[in-house]
Amino acid sequence: MPAVVIVGAQWGDEGKGKATDLISDRIDYVVKFNGGNNAGHTVVIGDEKYALHLLPSGILTKGVTPVISNGVVIDPEVLMEELDGLTARGIDVSKLVVSSHAHIITAYHRTLDRVTERFLGKRQIGTTGRGIGPTYADKINRVGIRVQDLFDEGILRQKVEGALESKNHLLVKIYNRRAIGVDEVVEELLSYADRLRPMVQDTALLLHRALEEGKTVLCEGGQATMLDVDHGTYPFVTSSNATSGGASTGTGIAPWRLDKIIGIVKAYTTRVGSGPFPTELDDEFGEFLRSNGHEFGTTTGRPRRCGWYDAPIARYSARINGVTDFVLTKLDVLTGLEKIPVCVAYDVEGTRVEEIPWSQSDFHHAKPVYEYFPGWSEDITGVRKFEDLPQNAQDYVLALEAISGSRISAIGVGPGRDAIVARHDLLG
Questions:
Q1: Which domain holds residue 152?
Q2: Segment holding 231, helix H or strand E
């Protein structure tokens, strides 16, 4: 059986859990392959709302094995808090598997993240301050701490000592902060070892064997294409590969097994943090989208920047990821608008540009070229068949499909887990 990848096709917060829910009854493993606890998402089941920050959404589905793979960075405190929170609400979390190769976020990573961001001033990236970037930097610099290190106190202490030798100089001499003690870091990390140990496996081997046995594996990306460290709006990006290619490196699943690539797009566009955003709205329409779409960060609570649908970004994501199917979410948020603008191209210093400019400067100054589509006023949250949508809503979806680079196979029409209109089989 193939592995399926779900990725955000904009700047994140597209509602990736909606696609997971749609196919969860045919999935055996759900794997988070990148990011950390900066990648929150919300899942609504009946009257219950679950805000997940580090755990894969498959942990809410009976019969599914949730996996945190090697491409993720893990804050053990956050992991335990999330597990305890779900357990208190009656969710069975006993099947969670954690990669022995995943890197650990420590107290000094969180401290460095916050003080570095403040030091940047106007050049801030807009990080969540949760230590994600510094942990990935240590990984690349080969001074990181992995999950497996928590089970060998000698190795753990050596690695913490090595890391803090340089980091304390930064904290004290550059940022005017106190030095962090080796003992306090080691003691905190060791406190999680006994609870973590039963969860830890060689997840690359586990997933390989699952696929060989005919199981279906779903790889669930954190953040989104436009936040990918290689293919996003650098430097205003995350510190990992959030595109479909990251599913292979972040899990150990061979690229040829990645058969279905499902891209998630909102019926409009949002982003958090700094960086270019051509269709951003700083007016009553932006507030309309923010209010109606409840556009506030799952992890941070920050209000999201809102704008109209951007077709060049969707086409870019379709190309970079090899998207086989789009899931269009939050169509219901647009209900009540008389007309709906869609960005179909950019104006860059008087020149019409159909694709995202390769120059960050040009993209920063790009102005959206809009086409306008008639809106609808009917409540669509109860609709489950495409033909039952208002004609203008159908036309809007079909227009987006024609200019976005891949078919739109499902449409989210409300916050509920079942509030979705299926047009094509996502696994077919």
A1: 103-196
A2: none
> 212 with 348, same domain?
yes
Quick: pLDDT tens for 108-146: 999 998 887 766 666 655 566 789 999 999 999 999 999
**pLDDT 10s digits, 205-234:** 999 999 999 999 999 988 899 999 999 999
**Do 220 and 351 fall into the same domain?**
yes
Written as one letter, the residue type at 229 is V
The verdict on 132 and 207 lying in the same domain is: no
- Concerning whether 75 is annotated as a catalytic residue, the answer is no
Amino acid identity, residue 2?
P
Residue 208 is a catalytic residue: no
Alpha helices, H only, 266-377? 284-292, 311-321, 360-365
Q: Which of 13, 113, 138, 228 is catalytic?
A: 13
Catalytic residue among 21, 25, 28, 41: 41
* Domain end point (choices 196, 227, 260): 196
pLDDT, tens digit, for every residue of 263-322?
A: 999 999 999 888 999 999 999 999 999 999 999 876 667 899 999 999 999 999 999 999
Q: What is the reported pLDDT for 144?
A: 96
Does 97 map to a domain?
A: no
Residue 98 lies in a domain: no
User: Which residue, among 279, 330, 262, 294, has the nearest Cα to 8 in the 3D structure?
Assistant: 262
Looking at the predicted structure, is the pLDDT value of residue 47 above 80?
no
* 355 pLDDT more than 80: yes
At residue 3, the 3 state secondary structure works out as: strand
| 8 Å CB contact between 250 and 229 | no
Dihedrals phi, psi of 68, to nearest 5 degrees:
-105, 115
> Among 196, 226, 248, where does a domain finish?
196
* 73 falls within a domain: yes
